[in-house]
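As a next step, the fold was encoded as tokens, giving this record:
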Amino acid sequence: MRLGRGAPVASTTVVYRLMADAVVVVHFGFILFGAVGGLLAWRWPRLVWLHVPVVAWGIGIVVVGFECPLTPLEKHFRRLGAEEGYEGGFVDRYVEDVIYPDTYTPLLRALAAVAIGVGWAGLLAHRRRRGRRGPEAEAGDVPGAPTGSVGAG
């Protein structure tokens, strides 16, 4: 049996299942980045501009109850891939009672909040230290950045 312009049904189903799996991977990455992105920004300070909206969205999901658009996207691809959808959200399905018991959710949210706070506090402290030493110290403040003047030597 073929669909559309000669594409076999089985291969189309597999493609949709792979797309759903890719959304799951992106979703896990999004959650992980939300938790530790502030710490990663110590190494790559410009990441903070990506981390702030991720944290804001995460707060909206947890506090306000927004639905992450990745969950319905994954469910859509699952249905197109001839799989059954699931009830609830992504965390309910793949994280709580799978990676850790549901009772640890408040603790892990608190740990994520601490990681975010430590990450941002570290960035702020670094920025203040750099400001006191003046602009000539900037290149040496960022790990991996070249030090010294161009052409010096």
Remarks:
- Confidence is low (pLDDT under 50) at residues 148-153.
